[in-house]
Structures are given as C-alpha cells and as structure tokens.
Specification:
The protein is built from four helices and 20 strands. The protein has 288 residues and is α+β, with helices and mostly antiparallel strands. α2 runs antiparallel to α3 and α3 packs antiparallel against α4.
C-alpha cells in the first residue's frame, strides 16, 4: 500500500524513459512471450554461462553473436550499452547495434547503423550448439545441435543477399542489419520473408503492448525513480509469463519479483532508507 500523501497525479512512465545506461557487466534477458528468450551479459564477448544466448522451448539455440564491420570484429567490451524494456542498444566507435525480440515469433532483429562501412557481418557463437553457416539462396542457415530438424536462418533486413564467408555472414552496410529466424526449413524461410517486410511493425506492436500494460497498472508516487522501478518490476513479472512448454507458465525468477514487491512495500509504507537500499540492490538483478 502506498501512502496517499505520496501519490501524485501525472502521466504514466514512458518506455523510453526506462533506459538503463550500463557501466560494465550486467545480466539481461528478453522473452518473446512465447517459447523463446535471449539471455546475455553486457560488456562481455562470448559469455560462457550455461544458459546464455537464444533459447527456444527450454533448449539452447546459440550462445551469442558477434558483429563485424568490413571484417573487423566489434567487441562488446568496447561498447556503451543502453538497456530498455524492449531493446538493447550498443554504441561502438563506428556503429550502433540494436537488438530486438518480437512477440509470439521465433525472430531476432539486429539493427546495425554503420555509415562509414561497406559491409557488415555476423557470426553465430556457441561451441557444440550451432553449426557453421551454409549458403541457402540469398540467405544463410545454421543447424542447432539441440533442435532436430530445425534451422536458424539469417538474412539481411532489407532482403538483399547475404554471403557466407567461413563463420561470417556478410551483407551490405546499407542493408539495415540482420534478421534471425528459427524453425523447420519452410517455417524459417517464411518467417524470414515476413520479418523482412514487417519487423518494424512487430516491434511497434510489442512496444505498444508493454506501454499499455504500464498505463493500465500505473501506480504513481512523488518519487520518479520509484515510479520507474515499479514500471520495470511490472514489465519483468509480465515477461516471465511465457509458453516455453506449450501452456502459460512462469519460466524463472519469480522469487526475485516477490522479493522486490516486499521491499517496495517497505519503501512506500515506512519510507525506510535501509529498505530503499535493499530495493535498489535487488533492482540491479532483475531480468529485463
């Protein structure tokens, strides 16, 4: 319960106000509200955690990906990273990368802006998880070892051809970036074709869903940081409810949310400095 004196009338927090500028290493995750999620660590290249990367139906697909410009690797350790509820943005010296998942579809969109480059590249990572890419028409395909008869298909955002060069998949720098899809051969091809035409609309729909959730459950106080924290908690709890095993369920981390809610109650009702510090400490461990 929040004391009435602490409640003020103003508009709900906007998603783009929830940006967390990350300094150093910090875990993050995004779910697609269905069977997939991506779990990573900022400021690290080739993170070796046993659950890292793209997971679908509780099985890993790949551990991570590495981008390049004109054959030169972009190191995540050198990137400035901003995390939002619906995207993660990495700012390198010569490029900006934005990664999105979309609701209800086995799709990852990686937007790359590199105005001075001629070619952009992506390499999928994961020893014993994902095969080297093979050319498949204007796209590339990789075989995930834990998913029988399934493929990861990689294409350029704008539909232009990608070229396989060893472990690297390359496209023109003006292509906009890459789209990764998962499924059987025909399914992955259809998803890629649809995504190349509709990915921006899908992301806007996802962002709109999240904003409506915040708006419809808005609990506003006279503390802007607390308002943002509550919005993050709400979105985090919602993200945990997925269909990894077919039906709706909570896949992980609900204990963290319960703990955050208990801390929040103490912050609001007792205005206790100790509980505020505990709350902020737990907030650093939420799954985005």
């Amino acid at each position: 319960m929040v004391c009435a004196s602490a409640v003020v009338a103003h508009s709900a927090v906007r998603l783009d106000e929830l940006c967390v500028a990350v300094d150093g290493q910090r875990e993050y995750s995004y779910s697609d509200k269905s069977a997939g999620f991506f779990y990573g660590m900022t400021g690290v290249d080739n993170w070796q955690d046993g659950n890292a990367g793209w997971n679908v139906a509780a099985k890993r697909v790949l551990a991570d990906y590495q981008l390049s410009l004109d054959g030169n690797t972009l190191n995540k350790t050198c990137a400035e990273t901003d995390v939002y509820p619906y995207k993660i943005v990495r700012k390198y010296k010569d490029a900006t990368e934005t990664m999105y998942l979309v609701d209800g579809k086995k799709v990852i969109v990686i937007d790359v802006v590199a105005p001075n480059a001629k070619k952009i590249g992506i390499a999928l990572e994961g020893d014993n998880l994902i095969s080297l890419p093979e050319q498949s028409g204007a796209t590339a395909v990789c075989q995930p070892s834990l998913h029988k008869n399934k493929l990861v298909r990689i294409g350029a955002q704008d539909g232009s051809p990608v070229i396989v060069n060893g472990p690297l998949i390359e496209a023109g720098a003006n292509s906009g970036g890459f789209v990764l899809t998962f499924g059987e051969d025909a399914e992955s091809a259809r998803l890629l074709s649809d995504a190349q035409k509709q990915w921006n609309d899908w992301i806007l729909d996802r962002k709109d869903r999240m904003q409506k959730l915040v708006n419809s459950n808005s609990l506003m106080t006279n503390n802007d940081d607390l308002d943002k924290s509550m919005a993050w908690m709400m979105l985090t709890a919602d993200e945990l409810v997925t269909r990894q095993h077919g039906g709706w369920g909570i896949y992980a981390g609900f204990g963290v949310v319960i703990c955050l809610l208990r801390c929040l109650e103490q912050c609001c009702v007792q205005d206790n400095l100790m509980w505020r510090k505990i709350f902020c400490c737990h907030l650093r461990n939420i799954k985005i």
